[in-house]
């Protein structure tokens, strides 16, 4: 039975066009996504649940696939030196993420902002030791919509609300770059975070038709059976969550995670076979015969 790996049918032709010099790789856009975790029922040993959304089938990129809340970086977040900030300084994040401090600030902001935009969960508080509680209500929704449309910058939003971004609530988990042959490319940093007490998730994204809290093992089993469609980064990071018994353990474990970027490679053999692979992730390797489908 085939698994649920997202595999666009146009990939073989695009890969061959790239190899022949007929296709130019586009520059990947920086992005961030968050694996939002919550612990299961007390007394159980099933590990934390993870919040996932299913992208609408009509979406141009990864339609129908399960993913985490996330999205692109807003360049304004790299430029605003007055942005309310708590937790490790930007320089520490820059070293962890492999970027400069301004870019690190923008990436962390994207993780927090997109989680709020798509799940209604805000990793921010009045000070460095507290987290905002209820984020529902018409006034909150108006601000969220203004963030989505970029009519309001994240720094302006925080200032308006008297809040600081709690960067200490995030743990950097992985970094994946969309393959060079894809027309829409992202350089994406994956983070983990625990659902703050008093907050609830909701499907606030226009890009998703369903959201679920699901155990990583259950989601991975659904992928293995071909029931849940996922991109390689999603199923890989899900499997990496399996050893952790609690959200707190996963956050501690994030500090030791390797953030070397994962980028797919494609090569043509002498027989015309195309071999598509993701270094360090053998389960995603595809062998495509000349003019054929992957095996």
| Shape by Cα distribution | globular
Major sheet summary line: 8 strands, mixed
Unreliable residue stretches: none
| Share in helix | 25-40%
The count of strands amounts to 14
Distance between the termini: 12 Å
The overall average pLDDT, rounded, is 89
SS field, number of helical segments: 9
SS-derived structural category: alpha+beta
Order of helices and strands: HEEEEHEHHEHHEEEEHHHEEEE
* Proportion of beta-strand residues: 15-25%
User: Rounded to an integer, what's the Rg over CA atoms?
Assistant: 19 Å
Domain Nudix hydrolase: 27-236
Organism: Streptomyces mauvecolor
Keywords: Hydrolase, Magnesium, Manganese, Metal-binding
Cofactor: Mg(2+); Mn(2+)
Short description:
The chain is an alpha+beta fold. Helices cover 29% and strands 24% of the residues.
Task: Give an overview in words.
The termini are close together. The protein has 295 residues and is α+β, with helices and mostly antiparallel strands. It is globular and about 65 Å long. 29% of the residues lie in helices and 24% in strands. It has helices spanning 11-19, 76-79, 90-97, 101-119, 138-148, 154-161, 216-224, 232-241, 247-254; strands spanning 29-38, 49-55, 66-67, 70-72, 85-86, 124-125, 164-166, 171-177, 186-194, 208-214, 262-263, 265-268, 274-278, 281-288. This is NUDIX hydrolase.
